[in-house]
């Protein structure tokens, strides 16, 4: 019996602080940088910039990427879990995650430590950027900002500032 694909949200303090939302697709982590992080409010559209694929092993990475190379800085695992693809075509037939991403709309249900419920990535057409939006469901909560309420790692319990201080 196949296991559910994983997702991870890593808080990354590189050139600027952002959340890397990564979803397992065809053996790699498809990734988007979301500067303001995921919102539980379905009326809020968050910019999501596609980044390079990462290996599945990277899902558990926390630490400080040293030096002044692209991507250097502190990283924590802000949330993780499994997801279910919910993307359907116009006739209601399932669309694979890879085909959904290629087509510019990917809907999925997260089951994580912090995040749950349905979400969607939609390509905007402007410069290849995407939007991340929370779908209206029982897990939507416009009054809760999880990025502020729960800033710590689900693995180490450290905040991004505490992780950055470990390099000293």
Automatic annotation (TrEMBL):
Source organism, top-level taxon: Bacteria
A Pfam match: LigD_N
Stretches assigned to the DNA ligase D 3'-phosphoesterase domain: 10-123
InterPro entries membership: LigD_PE_domain
Transmembrane segments: none
Protein name according to UniProt: DNA ligase D-like protein (Predicted 3'-phosphoesterase)
